[in-house]
Amino acid sequence: MGEVKTPRQWFLWSIALVYVCAFASIYVQIPGLYGDEGILPVRLQIPKVQRPLLEQESLLGLGPSLGLAPQQVLELTCLVGVALALCAVLLEPLRDSLIFFCLRLLYLSLYNVGGDFLRSEWDVLLLEAGLLAVLVAPLGLLRRHSSYRHHDPVSFWLTRWLFFRLTFCTGVSKLASGDPAWYDLSALSHHLENQMSPTPLAWYGHQLPDWLLRFGAAVVLQSEIIVPLVTFFAPIRRLRLFGFYVQLFLQLCYILTGNCSLLNLLSISLSFSLLDDDHFNSNTGPKKKKGQEKKPGGCAQMVSYLMLLVELAVYLFILYCFITLFKLKINWEEKTLSSETNFTPKGFNAFLEVFQELTIWIGVLSFTWEAVSAMLICVCTRGIVSKLWSLIQWAFITAAAAAVFALSVVPYTSMAGMPASKVLPAVRDAYSAVERFQLVGSYGIQHRMTSAKGRPEIILEGSYDGLTWTEMNPMYKPGNVNAVPPIVGPHQPRLEWLMWQAAQEGVDTRPWFTGLLQRLLQGKPEVVGLLQVDGAQYPFSKKPPVFIKAKLYNYHFTDPTKDKTHLQAWWRRQYKREFFPIVNLDDPALTKLLEEAGLKEKFPAQTGSDTPVSQAVSLIREHVKGLSGSLLLSTLLATLVGIFLIKAVFSWVLGGRKPRPVSADLKTRKPKEPSEMAEKSQTTAPSNRGGKKDSNEKKDSDKSPRKRK
């Protein structure tokens, strides 16, 4: 693989942008989730016996020294994270290893105290990608400049391995879990309405013909299982580019139909590991004139033809697998394409038993190739000191990358349905020792069965008298059947995500759900703001309800050809069962659940002192109060786009004033060594003396009588 300067910068820039979205999204929700009047107050998680700061799992211990309440510590953590990430997005010198180390430390602190609200797959992925950013980013703040290092391909290879694990495990988990919807290829039709936050475009996609949706499900499985196997670690550059564009197209489809989540942004960030500098420079580099192109020799031309044949063979293999595994047949009369799986769950498990261990060995060979190539480059470095320093850096980075790769094998082999591989006991022990630091994660294990019965949704209802009930429709998930599916963007509504999971699992005794009911009965504005920012849309904005209950409905996208009575509706729903019985604040059942969850105990609320830091945190909170998470993130992203546009305009306007670039010959001309200079001076000295003599002779000849005449 060629140099990776440009893909590395794109990866670091995109990871910094993801940090901006993640910290800002959590910051908006802190009062309702973790505040003193929130669902799960963070002050309840502070241990009574304080431990040293280095032994604590979060930064809450800094609160007393800074004069901040626990809620303000979380807010300050998010604000510092947003500020650092914004600086890294805007300024390339600040995409430094120290900056990314601080960002990961801040997010890990939030993760450790976040509880159920921060236990999603994208949180684990961001922590692991953040660790790789620490290894990939240059350490230039202490050296005033950062240069390309010979060992960069070794550390950057880890991002490709993570991207492979994420993509392959996501595809494998769909079939390894035994989900019948994926085996009969009807999953895509149900997925469009069952996903966490569908968009209006998902409704239109749901109206597509059944044969086209079944074909789309086959494309998804092919893109997530077969394509990564044969392209991600291929030595042929064009195959890796093919894998990149396939995954980019897949993520764009997910974004258009299911909103832009952090998981999609992280997947795109990791996909840059399949690129190299040649891909970015092929269209921007200077074009050579005719006759200046270097024609390859006979041997090189033969190798290029051989690689082209191998590349065509891989494409044919992908097409062959696609046709045979999914029985693709074209019906020319009806102009349709039929597809069905040509394998059974037993056959797929046999496939995993072989290819699980094979993929690990492919990773070992690919990593060894990158490490040895980087070592040879370091050995060829000029100068003994430079060579020794390059080898020391290479050894350190290679050892760290090998350790991360070995640790990642443990969760990689724990996928649902995959048999346990023969991992060394020492590696398992090391993984258990560092598991709390979230260095590596497992992906695909959160796959849920795709239900054909519709999308289960929890609908909260409140009442003043127990007879007349009014629904509390949230902002970011289906409620009112006539409401347009929302555009959430990169904002991650944590409460709606947990309610979506609870509806699928049918669990109603979680501590967070009990705390939610308590705060809604109390009418706490911080929690109400999680459901509806606009008071006009919340029916109990003036007075909280006396009674509250929860029902479970099954939602389906409407079909205009069948639902003639639902022409104005996006959804149709059916009542399934009661999810939570009627309760009020004095209900003994609710009191018992609160006591079991530890939410009924009388903990004194810790108020921060009136310090400058506390005042600044409170002032920022007052300015963003009443803003929804999607609006805040949209404003941040629009501001970043405006800054980049202004920067581009200034670069274009001032581009003509830049000095002319040095010609390629002068750039490639090497400085002369001292020994060469000395030899040249010795060889030119006699010629100079000879030159003087010749000039004297010339003067004498000018004075000759014939010349004077």
Automatic annotation (TrEMBL):
GO terms for biological process: protein maturation. It comes from the Eukaryota. It is a multi-pass membrane protein. The keyword Transmembrane applies. InterPro entries: LMF, LMF1/2_C, LMF1/2_N. The keyword DNA repair does not apply. Pfam families: LMF1, LMF1_C. Residues 661-709 are annotated as: Disordered. Keywords: Endoplasmic reticulum, Glycoprotein, Membrane, Transmembrane, Transmembrane helix. Residues 666-679, 691-709 have a biased composition (Basic and acidic residues). GO terms for cellular component: endoplasmic reticulum membrane. It is found in: Endoplasmic reticulum membrane. Residues 439-581 form the Lipase maturation factor 1/2 C-terminal domain. The chain crosses the membrane at residues 12-30, 73-91, 98-118, 124-142, 211-236, 248-272, 305-326, 358-385, 391-412, 631-654. Residues 120-281 form the Lipase maturation factor 1/2 N-terminal domain. Involved in the maturation of specific proteins in the endoplasmic reticulum. Belongs to the lipase maturation factor family. This is Lipase maturation factor.
